[in-house]
Amino acid sequence: MVDIPLKPKNETFTDKQWQAVFDSGDNLLVSASAGSGKTSVLVRRVIEKLKNGSNIDELLIVTFTEAAAREMKERIQNALQDAINKESQQERRNHFVKQLTLLPRASISTLHAFCLTVIRRFYFLIDLDPVFRMLTDDTERLLLKEEVWEELRESYFDSSDQDFYRLAENFSNDRSDDGFTDLIMSLYDFAKANPDTIDWLNQLPQSYDTTQGLAGNQMYQTQVKPLILANLQTAIGQQKTALEVAQNTGSMEKAESLLDSELEQARRLWTYVNEDKVQQAYEQLAAFDFKRYPTFNKQEEVKEISEEAIKPRRDSAKELIKNTETFFAQPPEKMLELMNHARPLVKKMGEVTLNFIEKYQKRKQVKGVLDFNDLEHFALDILQGNGEGSEASEYYRDRFEEVLVDEYQDTNRLQEAILFWLCNPESEYGNLYMVGDVKQSIYAFRLADPTLFVDKYSAFAHEEGGRRIILAENFRSRKEVLQFTNLVFEQLMDETVGQIPYDEDAQLVPGFSSFPASENFNTELLLYEKEVEEDPTVVDDKTEGELYLVALKIKELVENKFMIYDKKQKENRPITYDDIVLLTPTRKNNLVIMDVFKQFQIPLEVNDAQNYFQATEVQTMISLLEIIDNPYQDIPFVAVLRSAIVGLNEEELAKIRLAQKEGYYYEAFLSYLKNQDELSVRLRSFHEQLESWRSLARRRALSELIWTIYQETAYLDYVIGLASGRQRYANLVALAHRAESYEQSSFRGLYQFIRFVEKMQEKDKDLAEPLALSQENAVRVMTIHASKGLEFPVVFLLDMTKQFNYSDLTTRYIFEEKLGAGIQYIDNEQVCYDTLPYQAIKQQRIKKMLSEEMRKLYVALTRAEQKLYLVGSYKTKEEALKNLGESFGPRKYSIRSCTPIKRESQFNGLGWNDLDAAPRYAE
Amino acid sequence: MELYQEFQLGNISSDNLDFSLDNQTTSKRKDFELKMYEIKRIFAAYEEELAKRKLQIEQPLTMLTNFLASENSQEMAKLEQKLFIVTGFSNFNMQEQELLKVLFGKSQVCIDLYIDSIYADNGPLDLFFDPKQTYHLLKDFAQSQQERVLFDKKAPQLTQVSASYLELERCFKQTSVGRYKQEHNLDDFVEIWKAENPEEEVKQVATEIRRLVVDSFTKENEQLYYRDIQLLTLDPELYYPFISSTFEELDIPFYLDQDRTMEQHPLVEFIHALFALDDYYYRTSDVFRFLRTELYIPNDLQEETSDWKEARNRFRWMVDLTENEALAHNFHGVDWTRQEDWHLFDFDFEQEEIIETKSTEKLSNHVRNDFRNDIVSFFPRLKSASSTREAIVIFYEFLQEIGVEKQLLCWREQELEWGNLEYARDHEQTWASLMDLLDEFVEIYGSDSFDFDLFKEILSSGLENLTFGKIPTAIDQVQINSLDLTRPLQAKVTFAVGLDETSFPRTTENKSLISTEERQQLNATLQEGQYLKDQTEETIRKEPFVAYNMLLSASEKLYLSYPRNADSKQNMKVSPYLARILNWTNLSVQDHSSLDLTYEARNYVGTYKSLIRQLNGLYRQAQEEKKTLPVVWQSLKDLLLASDYRFLAQRVFESQTHRNTPVNISPELAEQLYGKDIYSSISQIETFYDYQYDYFLKFGLRLKEREIYGLNSAVTGEIFHEALDNFLKAIFQENLSLTQMSEEHRQLLVEHVLENMFGQERYAFMQGNARMSFIRYRLKKTIARVSWGLKKQAEKTRLTPVQTEVLFGEIAGNQGIPGLQIPLSNGGNLYLRGKIDRIDTTTVDGKPWLAVVDYKSSAHKFDITDSYYGLAMQLLTYLDIALQDAVELIGQKNVHGAGAYYFHVYDPVMDPKKTGEKERLKRYKYDGLFADEPEVFEAFDETLNKSQYSSVFPIQMDKNEQLKKSAKSKEKFYTAEEMNVLMAHNRKKLKEAAERILSGEIKMNPSYKMKDKRRATQYSPFHSISAFDPMLEENDYYRIHPLSKEEIMKRLKEENDG
């Protein structure tokens, strides 16, 4: 701890923020919840360091996105400029001016970008050819991988390797081996996020070890057994309480004896498991005798106690015990047998993947390219040397006074390893400054590992290895939004689900005091009732139903001039469309949203949509390029004829076909040219154009060809007159541009460009549309992920009752950073068994997934500045109330640790009936 | 090489890199020394190699210096009388310094430098740091050599420039140290613009240029010419294309000071593609990439026709068609190198027809043969060369043989014809460069043994970095210059574009082999007169100086602009240099956004051509904002429509009224297209109801997707169907019974059937590779499992297969039973054709029953809504036909319909909790329409016991031993009357479709099933043609809301009654 300067009176920072700016001398973890002014703190910290004589290039500042890095630089620049203007002392001024010149090459970037500079500088430490280019394009990378994989797969199939054949079969379906390819590609991606890919892959078969019996298997010991014991423990606790209640109530002998027997069995089961008597445990579980729970209809009072205090506890205990069967679905010897079968497959799949990695690496080397993945791995290789650090690591450790990491909760293990080699390794001289909020860690799909944050969060609480600073005050939202969020997360989140407790430290505290008080900002619930809608032909789709509600509500808000507070103008003003954002869990519903909002004539801006190649004018141009490449392609040829470039209608298209009824349409077109009517004149002129473009295509750069086409057809001029003409125009201009940068980066010529675009479409990849004029005053739609870090006056959170998507967990393979790989085993009779590691990993993944879903909810709720609407549907109002209420109350534990699976959607489990902030029910 | 060059310029030889490498130094130092040692070794090896080959990298400056330094030249005497003027430099590299030093001694030298004073106030941060340093360096040297410094003079204040010019100069200089106070207005001299994007930026600039030039016509003496104007940019890649297109459109002559590299020339692509053939062993894509260069045209074609163009067109055509075949058959690798001809066998699995391929076969073999003779044969010849010289001769001869030079010559001629002088020269130059390259190659490596990899490497990269010679500029053109090379008073008017925060100052990254620190370390050890510059550092340091030069580059007017967005970069800010000026002065940024209805037309008007686009854009804006076009623009439009551009304008303006709606074709045309009689499969009619427009494209225009080799679902489906058909046929033929045959027998039979089947030519493509044999193995296993299912079902039900693959109508020349013929109002008929996968029969109490079974390779459920709307017509039509033609099919009259069922062909994955035969059999349970007649239930499943569910049919036996419909499947049962109503409706829908098709109706009405959100557009391959866009007002889905069986029966009854 260092001396922190006294906070001046007029300083707007809170004490905690002030501390976060100046504290140092240790590793510091700043846990900054949503809206707590984290970026200002970070910038201020940097500035203060510079004022203190540090140089900007002695700091490493790692951001999560390029945009964040840019923003950071800009804010530092402004602050420096400011400091220069205010500074009177020449020497200090010179220092600031120098910082300004150093700024452009200061290490303020994403970790990826920083890795690139490490590689550029120290390439020779790992014998890397310093001449390389980045493989930035997804499709190109995909194609390269596919190419390598196809060759490797073929050579394996050709080698009559029995294990390989069985592996392929195990993951293929009854007619194709695509599933198998998916397996290897997923395993590749997963393994690559690990600091030591090779080791990780080689370790995979270990969890399938059977030499020590089931109880001796490490996966069983470390994962399964503790989980079973914990479940049983909870069950036993429930049973005991239930029994006590029954005994105290009296005249419940039947129930008592049932509870007694079940408790006794549960205890026995617990002992067997605890003592590793797996066979007995299995048998006990199979023979577990659950009797029918008696009814107490005669005595009203007893009945009530029974139904409210005993039966629920007993039933949940029963459920917990039943859940244990997941792990004992087969007798122990069968489980061992399955693991014996699976082990060689797991071994083979690791081997194939390693082989693939090697081949892919070689191919990249030949092409002189690096992909994003390589950046981190190579940088780590450079830094860690033979495991004890290297010249490079020494250099950076020496150079950096402090390493600041933003959004630390989204770091993965590989990145953590890299950071290790950049910071002072001794904790008493810790110089790592981490900022983040684990409640906002939503990048598991990019293999972020929030436990890194959590572990430090808990250790630093006791000053082990560093210290933590908590920024709880929220300067973004109204207290209604914050209270609601607090309320929800108090119910939902604890250490097991969510990895840290939602305790006082985690609570959001209102910090922005200028919002005028108003009654209108309670969080509201928009529920669509599926079964109540009278005319089924109007709306019978729940997504549409929900969106109708939303659209109606938005119309109402705007028409009634709902007043919101304008932070810039510092006064209330009527709401406009662009104050509103719709957050959706997925992009899937974008089509429907567009559809509904079109009907209501509400202007809409759909963000982060990757649908560039779907745009009509781009498709037309691609079709034209395709037929310039080869006109013997019916679909693109007719697409061009029907487009404005030739402008034929269906009648004319039909006439052409009649010139030759079979074969390529282009042949019919050529035949028609011989006619002497008005149509043939037009066709001949197009044919001439096409021929000249074909010649041009061989000789000129692609972008030149495209510009020539634009000039000769006036297509650019044409599209601007269509609906959303400016966007279309921008799309076409971008095509010429993208073609050009494509030719400069990778391949040359029309032929390869067309292949590339086709592959892209085949792989369902696309590019973002260039930004034309952004729709002003439009409601925005974005995913929760895209909304991270942003804030909006009014937020509609859509699709809250959507079932969680477990599809990631229904494949035949499942991976986890620490636990390795679990596979299902398919025997000769096509019976598909879960192996023990599969089940163990799956439970772990489900737990993580639910945590992640919960954090997504947190991110979504905290986007709102002023007003929050939650949108979902239930069959009826009654069902809604029942579901919303059920998740809380006596079954409180159920949404928590023990059976997290219970939470099926964002809505269920929110614990509504406890809410005084009572979301109002909207019809 | 770059590094070597750098060392040369810094006067550093590899000996300077010799470090002790002793153990005394720190590890960090050691690493540095080790690195230098390695570089030294590389350089030494390089120099040795040069020496061995008697080569010398020419260092003209050093040569000159040495020459001048040598005393013995007679010319030297004259030097003393000469004055050398050195201008425009701010610093000199070591070689240049050496030269200057010699000149100092031998003659008069005059050097000018931009500095404000000779004192560097701010160290490296001083704007004039470099020139000041240079100043001192030179002066110190001169003094140390006792050379006389004649004239150390400060240039006088500029007088011919305006006060604003000087103000700006002072402003930039002083704001850099933060003590400026504005004394004079700048707004008549500087304008700072922001535009939406680079393109708009250029447009605004171009319009302004026109305006300036035109306006100046009226002023005497002050006439401004294009040549007085320059446009500066730091990012030619981004801006040049816009500049070309915009300036051409606005008729502004311009000169791009741009080196065009040969990299883009097709000859380079030709060489890359050629070597890729060998590197990747004739991948399909590489072969066509090569053929598409069209620098190779087979000699036989060229001989056949004397006309070059005709030969090329012919070959182009042949390659087009061959490419399609190669993709469809996956011709790659050995297919291109072997001698035997290709045998094309095309089978249309959807239409079940063999496709005629004779002529394409001949043609593609022609291409293949030529390719093999001319290209494939080249590689072994080349590789067998013993010396490099020999290899190069072989390569040269090869190029000549296949006519590359000839093609280039023809291209040149053609370019000349088109008037593209510059391009014509390009072709010539590239060829000449290649020849030079080969010559040099022979000279240097000629006698070495041939190294193929080196050869490839040198040829591939040898041309890439060369640039084309430029054609001299015309007189009155706007100069487009590079911003970092500009100098004060370079033009009267300067436009500088792209000055956003990320572009200026430039961020440079040190990509060289030696880092900034290492450079410093190295320099510390070097002698005087040696210095390794740090480009990166220098660039960053000099950036303010570049800005300074830019600001002073115009004598009359300076326009500085930046784009707000560029492609996906959004909301960019202005460059910090400009921000500084804006901060300290009263200048403000002018928003030059793209044309808006409210803007002054005067600022935007360019040419007629550009007016077309502007008017079209304004029209759209007016539409969207529900306004009318301002009068000015309206009158401009009238002018345009009276000009020569009116035709183009009219065509372009069509977009204003464009609607993406198809037109109907005339009934006459429809009849010509589809025939008076319509021959159709049921799935075609279903397509019609699903998406009429697709129907028109697919069956009217007969458009096909490009065929790509692979196993698609249509093919697997066909394999399954055929296998099951063959299996049952074999049983019929051998008079076997499914129920009675043994398990082994069944397996043997399946094995035999599959063996035969995969032996057919149409499946030859599955022999292709090892992976395919795995898939074949897997398919076989699936089929074997299904045959087990068939047998087990047969053991339970009395409905027995009697017919399989029953053809009706005419398919691929085979005539089946008549099937359905529906008379149409045009006098023709609708003839339906198709295949009923299977017909099963049984007799209950003497009453004959019949059912049809349809094999599906994915799970299918009968959906009555789909059936009602014509989206699922198969089951009903098959049942209809089977009942109608029962006599012919099963030899019985008065047959009753037992239903129509889907049978899922697959190998189900079993849950360990539900294993065993029974469970597996359940997975094959039928779905579809079932006769709601209890008497037939016993035939459905004979083996049911009390309280059991059937695993074949959706029936059960209750605890009273009564057979009944299983509770969940009641909706699947239909009484005979209900079935008749549905079949009648089905026929009506068939007829309706045919009538509508022949009426010429074409609607763009993709169906959208509300139940599962399936949109017909989702899977349509024709999207690029229809361009259906739900955001367009005129494009709407045909929404299909789910209806209950009850509702549908009610509607049908009403229809019949009404």
UniProtKB/TrEMBL annotation, chain A:
<feature type="domain" description="UvrD-like helicase C-terminal">
    <location>
        <begin position="506"/>
        <end position="789"/>
    </location>
</feature>
<dbReference type="GO" id="GO:0005524">
    <property type="term" value="F:ATP binding"/>
</dbReference>
<dbReference type="InterPro" id="IPR027417">
    <property type="entry name" value="P-loop_NTPase"/>
</dbReference>
<dbReference type="InterPro" id="IPR014016">
    <property type="entry name" value="UvrD-like_ATP-bd"/>
</dbReference>
<keyword id="KW-0378">Hydrolase</keyword>
<keyword id="KW-0238">DNA-binding</keyword>
<dbReference type="Pfam" id="PF00580">
    <property type="entry name" value="UvrD-helicase"/>
</dbReference>
<keyword id="KW-0227">DNA damage</keyword>
<dbReference type="GO" id="GO:0000725">
    <property type="term" value="P:recombinational repair"/>
</dbReference>
<dbReference type="GO" id="GO:0005829">
    <property type="term" value="C:cytosol"/>
</dbReference>
<dbReference type="GO" id="GO:0033202">
    <property type="term" value="C:DNA helicase complex"/>
</dbReference>
<keyword id="KW-0269">Exonuclease</keyword>
<keyword id="KW-0067">ATP-binding</keyword>
<protein>
    <recommendedName>
        <fullName>DNA 3'-5' helicase</fullName>
        <ecNumber>5.6.2.4</ecNumber>
    </recommendedName>
</protein>
<feature type="coiled-coil region">
    <location>
        <begin position="62"/>
        <end position="93"/>
    </location>
</feature>
<dbReference type="GO" id="GO:0003677">
    <property type="term" value="F:DNA binding"/>
</dbReference>
<dbReference type="GO" id="GO:0006302">
    <property type="term" value="P:double-strand break repair"/>
</dbReference>
<keyword id="KW-0547">Nucleotide-binding</keyword>
<dbReference type="InterPro" id="IPR014152">
    <property type="entry name" value="AddA"/>
</dbReference>
<keyword id="KW-0540">Nuclease</keyword>
<keyword id="KW-0347">Helicase</keyword>
<feature type="domain" description="UvrD-like helicase ATP-binding">
    <location>
        <begin position="11"/>
        <end position="478"/>
    </location>
</feature>
From TrEMBL, chain B:
<keyword id="KW-0378">Hydrolase</keyword>
<keyword id="KW-0269">Exonuclease</keyword>
<feature type="domain" description="PD-(D/E)XK endonuclease-like">
    <location>
        <begin position="681"/>
        <end position="1007"/>
    </location>
</feature>
<keyword id="KW-0347">Helicase</keyword>
<keyword id="KW-0547">Nucleotide-binding</keyword>
<dbReference type="GO" id="GO:0004527">
    <property type="term" value="F:exonuclease activity"/>
</dbReference>
<dbReference type="GO" id="GO:0006310">
    <property type="term" value="P:DNA recombination"/>
</dbReference>
<protein>
    <submittedName>
        <fullName>RexB family exonuclease</fullName>
    </submittedName>
</protein>
<keyword id="KW-0227">DNA damage</keyword>
<dbReference type="Pfam" id="PF12705">
    <property type="entry name" value="PDDEXK_1"/>
</dbReference>
<keyword id="KW-0238">DNA-binding</keyword>
<dbReference type="InterPro" id="IPR038726">
    <property type="entry name" value="PDDEXK_AddAB-type"/>
</dbReference>
<keyword id="KW-0540">Nuclease</keyword>
<dbReference type="InterPro" id="IPR049035">
    <property type="entry name" value="ADDB_N"/>
</dbReference>
<keyword id="KW-0234">DNA repair</keyword>
<dbReference type="GO" id="GO:0006281">
    <property type="term" value="P:DNA repair"/>
</dbReference>
<dbReference type="Pfam" id="PF21445">
    <property type="entry name" value="ADDB_N"/>
</dbReference>
<dbReference type="GO" id="GO:0005524">
    <property type="term" value="F:ATP binding"/>
</dbReference>
<dbReference type="GO" id="GO:0004386">
    <property type="term" value="F:helicase activity"/>
</dbReference>
<dbReference type="GO" id="GO:0003677">
    <property type="term" value="F:DNA binding"/>
</dbReference>
<keyword id="KW-0067">ATP-binding</keyword>
<feature type="domain" description="ATP-dependent helicase/deoxyribonuclease subunit B N-terminal">
    <location>
        <begin position="2"/>
        <end position="149"/>
    </location>
</feature>
